[in-house]
Every structure is written in structure tokens, then in C-alpha cells.
Automatic annotation (TrEMBL):
Protein name, as recorded: Sucrose-phosphate synthase
Enzyme Commission no: 2.4.1.14
Family assignment from sequence similarity: Belongs to the glycosyltransferase 1 family.
Any one GO molecular-function label of the UniProt entry: sucrose-phosphate synthase activity
Keywords tagged on the record: Glycosyltransferase, Transferase
Catalyzed chemical reaction(s): beta-D-fructose 6-phosphate + UDP-alpha-D-glucose = sucrose 6(F)-phosphate + UDP + H(+)
Quaternary context: Homodimer or homotetramer.
Length: 1050
């Protein structure tokens, strides 16, 4: 906890005790007594525990002890514990400093290697910043906002977009989300993010060209929350009729879609949602697929209308959006809101917990990995401020501002980036809804006397609720609106107010700290902060000068701002660090000058609004001086108020949405490839299977060259449109991008017919049968020995019987040639299977009577290869991996060798001689990310093989692809797996499908998971009713498990 003031009070109290605690005798008390000492026992038992809550309880007990000797002994023990706190903190700080040095060296080395790979001469733009360069992370608010929000360009752009019908999906999983009467502050998960995503969805739904917006969240049917959170669908109507810029169609508008996942009838914190993310993804995929069909009938001419973008909010939704984006092959956007690495640093600085303890409490490493995956998958990362990019995102392996500048300079020059990619960082401040803000005459000119005589409109009830605290309610009000959270720094504000007599004489202080019924029922941290505030009020005797109401409704917040403005007051946000500061914008819109922390988003807000003062949140005197200056200098107050009102429109939701949509328009449209409309496919030559296959191959090549920013039509990439916005052609480029965006969003003629010409089985009579199966058995057992796989296949097939309604898919890390050899050895026909997921999910094959190659009766799904092509590093990635293998071999002998025979276009395979001598998955993945290479690294076959595949490819994602393409219902899928497996094992267990785990199989693979960033229990839903462990792997065991899952009758 920041600002451990109670520690000082402990020490002061100990010093005040007098001679009872003698420094000369303290060693006798603790170390030199020959007999058993309860004191010594107490110290030894608690010395390693330094939880502040426990320490506070100990202090209360010690202070309540009547006997002076016992009291002195207890106080001495407390002193030793406090000393241990400081010692432990120094130890953790030292370890963290060493880790940072190591990370910095790794990043510098990775950057150097990446630059060496890109061997062309560096341009001036690559050597440093270019004046006027459009940087993805250095745009100033004043420079970028006028250009993006240019009136003429945005009007033309809006006119172009009016006839379009875009479908956008937003995701925000945790907290309680509803459109009206939001319970902000109810708990730590229901805060500013909830309000942001709801208002963003509502605002986007009113924009021209946007047909439908879905905000996906969790359905909560718990008895301790309101029934409205269990409603499957809630429409977000426009605030006013003037806001609606279009006539809504049958399914048009903005909606909250609540997806049921996780524990039923229970509201759980976000830290416990991680094991249930795959279940959400599967259910969300079903909703999006169904909605795309509905919209296709309404506005798509019968062709599915896929989302133009999927936008994840916070790490859990970012993880979900990445999986959905990969399954659908549509662009992804990400907004972090609060970042895990930054939180980890803040917690480490406090010195209360080690990294392991923090990880156990907050599941922080799982959160960080989700944010890294979001960087891998996102086309655009939206931030509120430059500070978030420069000080927070640069902490991540997947984003390096220096390397990002080099890559963008190369892209502008049309030079290859050798398979390296960086997401586009874009600063778009959150918007605000102004419809409810009415500045009354008294609010505008501060004529309180005249308004008091005006009785036509009664005062809002919340005014009297606040005013009852004050002995002189006419004084200017200093308003703070924040949860009683340590990082909000409210205690320092109360101290600044209490110790500045001139400020107390001139102003009142109002603290709106969420809602509470009983302090004892609040969370420990919030209760501790609130109690500290109440004690400070008592210490400085601030009764009659400080208001701290227990309750307020969300709709009353504007009235609270109005009251402060009416008294010519000031709004303050003294947080230690504020990612953005939406309350500052709200306050400015109501005519309140601001005092805000200089750390984080308020710097950008102040730069635009120029309506107050910035302070060091750690400097109590600075806070008091700034507040005193604004309430005492009426001319300064009026000037700040006027500046805020004049510039506040720059933070409106329409401005936000225009910039938001223009950024989406810059993305290369992507969607499921067999649904894509392309001129080359509209009139294919009859009886020309070779040409059709070549067209498909050409499409894959074009996707590889254009989707990720290395090359595109014309010179540079679509992203380059932003780089030339100031040129004469900037307007037409933006218009063309919007047209491409809409064209790509609505699916065209199915390309499956072309696949039929390449092989009649693909898209022919066999594969639509997959959707007719009652059940699909997916055999994904990573056996200790490959030779055991045929036996398991035969056992599962025997258990299934001869019913035609059961289909089979083999999911493995083996190559298709290895699979073929395996099937021959077990006398199993490939035609017994519906599909083969090979090379850890990077290749998908269907059985075929004809041979694609010598002796290989399989047909490759080329559409799937195009589907997973996104950000695949290709030859640049392979060269980096070969260089990495050489460096390992140089130090430890021939440990890693490239396996060219098993490598394919989307899977680079390596043989591993000794798993203990190679770095774990997390280290290799980190190495690739540092060099801007996006991939999925998997150790398989008990650590004897390393597969490197596209970042959004996996065995689990291949199943989702089959669902999207062929309609294979995931709820009818039964996955068979071992107790452990390859390092992608966790992806096979979660989701709506059922899983049978064979006890005792795959245990040899446990060593692959011994050095993980986070334990498997943080991500696997072991308590799910869809997961069942079979006692053995006999036919009877399989049938018994299937019976318990309700798949067959026992």
C-alpha cells in the first residue's frame, strides 16, 4: 500500500512508550533469554509475514494491552516486523533491478539482430525521428487531432460511409455491464471501463455507415446481482433522437450481448475468469456466425456479413478477441485500459509481495501473456495517451518504439521487413456524452444569489445530501470523485487540505468515494483507505468542512459537478498515476477548472483543454498551493473554466468515433477466405481445375504480401494512407480505403466451388456431411510413444461403434506424411476420418481417394493456409530460428537441428536432442517477440520436436475454423486427450466441447510444462462438467466416459 502512514504512527507510538523498550535490552528480549519466550516464538512465527492487514490487527491488539510490560514487548515485536518489511522491500527491489537490466540487454540484443537481418542501408527515418514523421507512438494531441478530424475530410468521409453497412464487435468481459443505471464503483471490476465500452458502443451505433454494433460481455445470473445482468440482449438506444444519424434496420443499432460462460449462478472477479475464456470464445463465435447470416439476409444480398473489426478491451477480452480474430480471419483492435506489466512494477515497488505471490493473487503473468498475444494479433492498439505508449507499452516484449520506427520507415520505402510486424499504436482519447449537460445561467456566470431566488427548478436531492455536511455551504467546493483505493491518493489530498489553513478558510472539500452501506462489508483495502480518511478528518478537526456521502446514483454525478461549478469550485484528481482521466473531461464539460496529477493521461488532457494546473501527487504542499491558487484567483478560475468549455468538443463521442472508424478503414479488409469476393473468381473458366487451383494459390500469395503491411496495392501499405494525409491525394486515399473496407466486410461468392475443381471431395458430397454428424470425435492424445496412437484410435472407434453419425478427426503435431505412415502401420484407412489437423494446427487435410502426392491420399485445405497466414514471418522467421539453433549448439553441442523433411510452408520443425539444454517455450517466444516476429512456439512429442507455426494457428483454432467453414457444431465435439501433452495442451481442454482425459497417458510430457510463466490451473477449467477423466483407455472405459457425458446411452 502506497504511503504507509500507519508505520510511522507505530514507530512514534513505540518511541512514546518510554523506558519500557530499551535499545540496550532489546537483544535480551529476543535472543539472549534462556527459557521459552512467547515473544520470541511470536516473532519467529510472523517474521516472514508482512501483510499490512495482519500487521494492523496486531497493532490494534498491542495497543489494547493493559499491562505495560506485555504491551512494550508486543510493540517491540511490531518494530521488528516493520524492520523486516523494509529489509524485504530492499531485497525485492534489488531482484527487480537485476531483472530490468537483463530485460534491457535482451531487448538491445534483439533489436540489433533484427536490424542486422534487415540488411539494406538505413534511411534517415530509420536512424531517428523525422520532423513531421507520422509516428505510431509520438503524435502530439494538437498535431494529430486537427488532421484526423479535419472538417472537410471527415464530412466527405462520412458521406462516403453513409451507404455502407458495417458490423463491429466489441468485447468487455469482466464487471457488471448494462446500458442504464450503471453501478460504477460497486466493485473493482465495475469501473470506468464499463462506462467507456457502453458509451463507445452506443456512439458507434449512431454513426453513418455503421449498421450494427455488438458489445459482448458475460451473462451473470447470480442472486447477489440485479436480474438485468442475466438478460441475453439489451439494446442501447441513442441518447437523443438528434444523435441518430441513420434509420435502424431490423437488426441494426447497438446491443449488449451477454454470453453465458464460467460458473453458473455466480459472479466472480476477473482474476478467476481466465480458465473460462475458451468457453466464451466458442459461444461468441456461435453468436457472430449466426448474426453474420442474419445480417447477410438483411443487408448482404444473401452473403454473410462478417465483422469489419473485433475490438478487445482489457487483457481478458484481448485474449478472446485474438482467438476470435484468428478463427474468423478479421482485423483485431485492442485497448488495454490498465496494463499488467505496469501493475506488476507498481506492486513490486511496494515491496510487500514477491513476484510469485503477486502472480498467485492477481494471476498477473496470465494477464501479461494475454496482453502480449494481443500485441501479436492486433492491427491497431488504441491508447488514451502518449504516456501509455511511452511508459507502459514499451515494457512489453512485443512492442519496441525504436524498432517500430525502423519498420515503418522501411514500409514507407517499400522495403521488405523480413517477416517482422508491429501493431499500429494510435492515440484516440475517450469520448464523452454531452446530451445531459445543461449549463444553467447560474452555472455560467456564478450568480448563486439570483439562482437561489429561482424556484422554478428544485435543487437535485444529491445537493442537500452533500450540503448537510458543511457549516458554510457557500464556500467554493473542492471535488474529488474516486474509489477509496490507495492509488487514487485521496489521503494525501485530505492532508493537504487539513494542513493548509488558508485553503480551509476559503473552500470546502467533497469526497465522493463510491457507494457503501457498512465499512465492515467493504474490501479490506478500500475499508483501510476509508478509515484512514475518517481518522484524518478527525485529526485535523475538519467536521463541517468535508463531505463524504455514503450513496449516490450514477445519474446524479452530473448534478455533483454542477454543484461544484455553481460554488465556483475546483475538481481534483490526485492519483499517483492516471491512465487517462475521464472524470477530468466530465468536470471540464460542466465548467469546472481542474487540478490533476502530472503522471499519465491528464498531461494530454491539459494540453488540449488548458483549464487548470498539474501537480506532483507525492507533493502535498504542491497540491495545496494549486487548489488555493484556483479558488482564490477569480480571474484565473474564470479563464480556466472558459478554456475548458471552449475546447471540450474535441473529446466528444462523435469526434472519437470518426477517428476510430477512419483508423479501421486503414486496415486491410480480412474475412473468411472462402467467402471473399474477388473479380478473378466471379467467372471462373469451366473445366479448368488447374486454373482454379492456381487462383487459390495466387490468393494465398497476395494475402501473404498484403495483409500484414509488407506490400500492398500500389506503393507501401494501406497504413501509408495516414502517412500522406497531408498530401493532395490524402482525401481520395481515405475514401478508397473506406470503399475497400465495406467491400471486404460483406462476403461474396463462395470459393469452395474452386476447391471442388481442385479435388471433387473438397466442398463436394463428403465434407458437408461433417455438419450432419451427430458427434465428432477428435483424437488429440499426445502419447508417450507415437506407436501407441493407432491402438488408441482403434479403441475410440470401437467404442463409437459403427454408427455413421459419428465422425473422426485426428489432431496431432505430426506431419501428414508421418500420419500416413502411422495409419498404414495400424491398418487404418484415412477414409475413416473426416479431417486431419497436422503440424500442431498449421495444416489441415481431408482424406481423398486421389493422391495429392505420391502415396498421400489427402487434400490440403488451401483456404485454411490463407486463413492462418496473418503475420507469418516466413523466411525471415526461419533464418532467425536457424541462427538461434546455431547459438544454442555453439554453447551446448548439437542440441537443436532443423528438420527440413517435416517442415512445411507454415510450420518450421526442429529436432531437439536434450530438452533440458534448450530454453523453455516462454523464453523462445520472448526472443521472437523482441525481434518483432509473431509466431506460436510449441514443444511436442515429449520435447523431441519443436514446431513453430503462425501466431493464431493451433489445434484448438483449427476446430473453430471447421465450425465456421463446415458448420461442425463445437458442442457436439468430444476431444480425447491425455493427462498432459505438448505445450499447446491447454488449448485442447477449454471450450464448449466435451473432453475425455485418459488417465496415465502423456505424463512424460509434464516436463514440458515445468517452467511455465503461470501454472496450468490458472487457465484450465478442471471443475468444468464438460471435462471427465477416464479410468483407463480400454473400450469399456471410453464408453463409460461417453455415457457420463451424455454422448451415448450407457
Amino acid at each position: 500500500m502506497a504511503g504507509n502512514d500507519w508505520i510511522n504512527s507505530y514507530l512514534e507510538a513505540i518511541l512514546d512508550v518510554g523506558p519500557g523498550i530499551d535499545v540496550a535490552k532489546s537483544s535480551l528480549l529476543l535472543r539472549e533469554r534462556g527459557h521459552f519466550s512467547p515473544t520470541r516464538y511470536f516473532v519467529e512465527e510472523v517474521i516472514t509475514g508482512f501483510d499490512e492487514t495482519d500487521l494492523h490487527r496486531s497493532w490494534v491488539r498491542a495497543a489494547a494491552t493493559r499491562g505495560p510490560k506485555e504491551r512494550n514487548t508486543r510493540l517491540e515485536n511490531m518494530c521488528w516486523r516493520i524492520w523486516n518489511l523494509a529489509r524485504k522491500k530492499k531485497q525485492l527491489e534489488g531482484e527487480e533491478a537485476q531483472r530490468k537490466v537483463k530485460c534491457r540487454l535482451e531487448r538491445e540484443r534483439g533489436r540489433k539482430e533484427a536490424t542486422a537481418d534487415m540488411s539494406e542501408d538505413l534511411s534517415e527515418g530509420e536512424k531517428g525521428d523525422i520532423p513531421g514523421d507520422v509516428s505510431a507512438h509520438g503524435d502530439s494531441m494538437r498535431e494529430r487531432m486537427p488532421r484526423i478530424s479535419s472538417v472537410d475530410m471527415m464530412e466527405d468521409w462520412a458521406n462516403q460511409l453513409k451507404e455502407k453497412k458495417l458490423y463491429i464487435v466489441l468485447i468487455s468481459l469482466h464487471g457488471l455491464i448494462r446500458g442504464e443505471n450503471m453501478e460504477l464503483g460497486r466493485d473493482s471490476d465495475t469501473g470506468g471501463q464499463v462506462k467507456y465500452v457502453v458509451e463507445l458502443a452506443r456512439a458507434l451505433g449512431t454513426m453513418p455507415g455503421v449498421y450494427r454494433v455488438d458489445l459482448l460481455t458475460r451473462q451473470v445470473s447470480a442472486p447477489d446481482v440485479d436480474w438485468s445482468y442475466a438478460e441475453p440482449t439489451e439494446m442501447l438506444g441513442p441518447r437523443t433522437t438528434e444523435n441518430s444519424m441513420q434509420d435502424l434496420g431490423e437488426s441494426g443499432g447497438a446491443y449488449i450481448i451477454r454470453i453465458p460462460f464460467g460458473p453458473k449462478d455466480k459472479y466472480i472477479p476477473k482474476e478467476l475468469l481466465w480458465p473460462h475464456i475458451p468457453e466464451f470464445v466458442d459461444c461468441a463465435l456461435s453468436h457472430i456466425r449466426q448474426m453474420s447470416k442474419v445480417l447477410g439476409e438483411q443487408i448482404g444480398g444473401g452473403q454473410p456479413v462478417w465483422p469489419v473489426a473485433i475490438h478487445g478491451h482489457y487483457a481478458d477480452a484481448g485474449d478472446s478477441a485474438a482467438l476470435l480474430s484468428g478463427a474468423l480471419n478479421v482485423p483485431m483492435l485492442f485497448t488495454g485500459h490498465s496494463l499488467g506489466r505496469d501493475k506488476l512494477e507498481q506492486l513490486m515497488k511496494q515491496g510487500r509481495q514477491s513476484r510469485d505471490e503477486i502472480n498467485t493473487t492477481y494471476k498477473i503473468m496470465r494477464r501479461i501473456e494475454a496482453e502480449e498475444l494481443s500485441l501479436d494479433a492486433s492491427e491497431i492498439v488504441i491508447t488514451s495517451t502518449r504516456q501509455e505508449i511511452e511508459e507502459q507499452w514499451r515494457l512489453y516484449d512485443g512492442f519496441d518504439p525504436i524498432l517500430e520506427r525502423k519498420l515503418r520507415a522501411r514500409i514507407r520505402r517499400g522495403v521488405s521487413c523480413h517477416g517482422r510486424f508491429m501493431p499500429r499504436m494510435v492515440v484516440i482519447p475517450p469520448g464523452m456524452e454531452f446530451h445531459h449537460i445543461v449549463l444553467h445561467d447560474g452555472d455560467m456566470d456564478g450568480d448563486t444569489e439570483r439562482n437561489e431566488e429561482d424556484t422554478t427548478s428544485p435543487d437535485p436531492p444529491i445537493w442537500s445530501e452533500i450540503m448537510r455536511f458543511f457549516s458554510n455551504p457557500r464556500k467554493p467546493m473542492i471535488l474529488a470523485l474516486a474509489r477509496p483505493d490507495p492509488k487514487k491518493n485521496i489521503t494525501t489530498l485530505v492532508k493537504a487540505f487539513g494542513e493548509c489553513r488558508p485553503l480551509r478558510e476559503l473552500a470546502n472539500l467533497t469526497l465522493v468515494m463510491g457507494n457503501r452501506d457498512n465499512i465492515d462489508e467493504m474490501s479490506g483495502t478500500n475499508a483501510s483507505v476509508l478509515l484512514s480518511i475518517l481518522k484524518l478528518i478527525d485529526k485535523y478537526d475538519l467536521y463541517g468542512q468535508v463531505a463524504y456521502p455514503k450513496h449516490h446514483k450514477q445519474r446524479e454525478v452530473p448534478d455533483i459537478y454542477r454543484l461544484a461549478a455553481r460554488t465556483k469550485g475546483v475538481f481534483i484528481n490526485p492519483a499517483f498515476i492516471e491512465p487517462f482521466g475521464l472524470t477530468l473531461i466530465e468536470a471540464a464539460a460542466h465548467g469546472l477548472p481542474i487540478v490533476a496529477t502530472k503522471n499519465g493521461g491528464p498531461v494530454d488532457i491539459h494540453r488540449v483543454l488548458d483549464n487548470g494546473l498539474l501537480v506532483d501527487p507525492h507533493d502535498q504542499q504542491s497540491i495545496a498551493d494549486a487548489l488555493l491558487k484556483l479558488v482564490s484567483d477569480k480571474q484565473l478560475w474564470a479563464r480556466c473554466r472558459q478554456n475548458g468549455l471552449k475546447n471540450i468538443h474535441l473529446f466528444s463521442w462523435p469526434e472519437h468515433c470518426k477517428t476510430y472508424l477512419s483508423r479501421i478503414a486503414m486496415c486491410k479488409p480480412r474475412q473468411p477466405q472462402w467467402q471473399r469476393r474477388d473479380v478473378a473468381f466471379e467467372n471462373p473458366e469451366p473445366n479448368s481445375p488447374g486454373d482454379s487451383l492456381r487462383d487459390i494459390q495466387d490468393l494465398s500469395l497476395n494475402l501473404k504480401l498484403s495483409l500484414d503491411g509488407e506490400k500492398s496495392e500500389g506503393n507501401g501499405t494501406i497504413d501509408n494512407s495516414l502517412d500522406v494525409e497531408d498530401s493532395a491525394d490524402g482525401k481520395s486515399i481515405l475514401e478508397n480505403a473506406v470503399l475497400k473496407l465495406s467491400k471486404g466486410a460483406i462476403g461474396g461468392a463462395e470459393k469452395a466451388s474452386l476447391m471442388e475443381k481442385a479435388d471433387p471431395n473438397v466442398g463436394g458430397s463428403r465434407f458437408p456431411g461433417m455438419m450432419m454428424r451427430k458427434n465428432i470425435f477428435v483424437i488429440a492424445v499426445d502419447c508417450d510413444s507415437i506407436s501407441d496412437i493407432p491402438k488408441i484410435i482403434r479403441t475410440i472407434k470401437e467404442a463409437a461403434g459403427k454408427a455413421n453419425h459419428v465422425g473422426f478427426i485426428l489432431s496431432t503435431s505430426l506431419s501428414i506424411s508421418d500420419v500416413h505412415t502411422l495409419l498404414i502401420s495400424g491398418s487404418i484407412s484415412p477414409l475413416d476420418f473426416d479431417a486431419f489437423i497436422c503440424n500442431s494446427g498449421s495444416d489441415l487435410y481431408y482424406p481423398s481417394p486421389s493422391s495429392e502426392g505420391p502415396g498421400l491420399p489427402f487434400t490440403a485445405d488451401l483456404d485454411y493456409q490463407s486463413h492462418i497466414e496473418y503475420r507469418w514471418g516466413g523466411e525471415g522467421l526461419r533464418k532467425t530460428l536457424v541462427r538461434w539453433a546455431a547459438s544454442v549448439n555453439e554453447k551446448k553441442g548439437q542440441i537443436v537441428t532443423e528438420d527440413e523433411s517435416r517442415s512445411t510452408a507454415h510450420c518450421y520443425a526442429f529436432k531437439v536432442k536434450d530438452l533440458e539444454l534448450v530454453p523453455p517455450v516462454k523464453e523462445l517466444r520472448k526472443l521472437m517477440r523482441i525481434q518483432a516476429l509473431r509466431c506460436h512456439v510449441i514443444y511436442c512429442q515429449n520435447g523431441t520436436t519443436l514446431n513453430v507455426i503462425p501466431v493464431l494457428a493451433s489445434r484448438a483454432q483449427a476446430l473453430r475454423y471447421l465450425y465456421i467453414r463446415w458448420g461442425m457444431e463445437l458442442s457436439n465435439v468430444i476431444v480425447f486427450a491425455g493427462e498432459c501433452g505438448d505445450t499447446d495442451y491447454e488449448g485442447l481442454l477449454g471450450g464448449v466441447h466435451k473432453t475425455v482425459i485418459f488417465k496415465g497417458i502423456g505424463n512424460s510430457a509434464l516436463k514440458l510444462h515445468s517452467n511455465r510463466s503461470f501454472p496450468l490451473e490458472h487457465v484450465l477449467p478442471f471443475d468444468s462438467p464438460n471435462i471427465l477423466q477416464a479410468e483407463g483407455c480400454s473400450c469399456e472405459d471410453v464408453r463409460a466416459s461417453l455415457g457420463k457425458l451424455g454422448v451415448i446411452k450407457e
